[in-house]
C-alpha cells in the first residue's frame, strides 16, 4: 500500500453512527479523512479489548477502494495488523473471521443503500457485528480522540476458494435438475455468483452480472418488488423453476417463483422450516417483527420454539447464537442457517438452499407455496423522518397505543397486536425514516389498521 497522508477528522457527523453500522453519503458525511479517523479509532479501541489483528474487506461501490485505503492506513497507524481480503461480498468477509480465526474487522459497504452512500460494518471482538450500545460507545471513544500510535503490518489474503468449498460442502442437490435465473444487480455478487453456481449441476443464466456500482439496471435491494421486474419477466420467458436476486453486498436474498411472482421472505422461511425442522432435535426458530404471523403459525404446527426479535442484521445474527437457534430470518432477506452451515447470512447460499429444496421435490415452487396460511399484508412502508425526530415520533405512537388499551410489543418500535392482525411502526436504523407494516386476516381489516395508524403517524411526524 502506497504512502497515504491523512488527517484526523475534527467534525464527524454523529448521525453516521447508526443502530448496527456506520453509514452516510460519500463524500458529504463520509470521506477519506473520516475513514482514516475511524480506522485509527478502531485500531485503538480493539487494542483496549486485547486485540492486535483485524480483517478488512470492501464491496464494489465507487468510493470503496479509496475509503478502504484510508481506513487501513488509520488502523495500521494505531499499531494493529491488518489482513486485507480485498473486494468481497459481506458474507465472504464473515467467513474470513473463521478462516483466519480473527474476530475483529471492518467491511466497507453501504449494503443496499443508494449508490452515493458508503459505510462500515464493524466487529470489535468475539461478540460479532457491533450494534446498539456497542456503536454508541465506539462513537464516544472516537470523539474523544485518545488514539494509540504504532506501526501495524499489512497482509493480503484471498479467501474465494475456501468460501466456495464451504458452499459445495454444505449443499446436497437431489435428482431433479433445476433451471434458475440469477440477478446480481451489478453489485458485489456479480464478481462471484457465476463462478460459484457453476460448481453445481444446475442450469442457470445471470442478469446484470457485470460489476457496476452506478447500479444502472435497478437498485440492488431485492426486498422491493419493483427491483425484481426484470427477473420476474425473465423467469417466465425462460420457463425457469426459480429466480434468485442478491443485494448490493450479497448478504440478502430475494426469490421469484416459477410463475414470475415475488416470494416474500417469510414464505421462503416457512419452506425452509418445513425442510429443516423434521431433520433436527434443535427445533428453535428466530424471526423479526416484520414477518407474517404465518411464520409463528408454522413454527407452532411443526412443534418448534420460536422468538420474535428486533429487526437488524447485527441484532438478529447475535441473537441467533445467544439463543442457539437452528434457523432464522428477517423480512428484508437476511436468513441464517445453522443446521450444516456456520450461521452467517449469505444471499448466494440462501439461493442455493432454495435450489437444493426444489431439487428434492417434484412440485413447482408455486405449488409448494399453495398451502401456506393466508394473511393479507402491506409491503414495508417508509416515511421520511429526521434522525433527531424519529425516535420521538415512535414514543408518541406508544402513548397513543397505551391510551387505547391495545396489546403491544416493544421489542422493536411498537407492534400493536390484535386477534385479527397487527400494526408495526419502528425507526429505521439505516436512514432517516420510520417504517411501517400491517397485516390482517381480511383485506377490510388490513385497510382499517393501515388507516388508523398512518393517520396517527402523520399527526406526529411533521
Describe this protein's structure:
- This protein has 462 residues and is of the alpha/beta class.
- The protein has 14 helices and 21 strands.
- The strands form 4 sheets. A 6-stranded mixed β-sheet has the order 1-5-4-2-3-6, with helices on both faces. Strands 16, 17, 18, 19, 20 and 21 form a 6-stranded antiparallel β-sheet that branches.
- Helix 1 (32-47) packs parallel to helix 2.
- The longest helix has 18 residues, at 443-460.
- The mean pLDDT is 96.
Q: Poorly predicted ranges (pLDDT <50, ≥5 residues)?
A: none
| Gyration radius, rounded | 22 Å
Can you list the strand order of the major beta sheet? 1-5-4-2-3-6
- % residues in beta strands: 15-25%
The structure class reads: alpha/beta
Q: How many β-strands, per DSSP? A: 21
Q: What proportion of the residues is helical, as a percent range?
A: 25-40%
Tally of helical segments:
14
The best one-word shape is globular
Kindly, what is the distance between the CA atoms of the first and last residues, rounded to a whole number of angstroms? Answer: 49 Å
Let me know the average pLDDT: 96
What summary fits the major beta sheet? 6 strands, mixed
Key words describing this protein structure:
alpha/beta; six-stranded antiparallel beta sheet; 462 residues; six-stranded mixed beta sheet; 21 strands
In short:
The protein has a 6-stranded mixed beta sheet with strand order 1-5-4-2-3-6, sandwiched between helices. Strands 16, 17, 18, 19, 20 and 21 form a 6-stranded antiparallel beta sheet that branches. A 5-stranded mixed beta sheet has the order 8-7-9-10-11, sandwiched between helices. The chain is an alpha/beta fold.
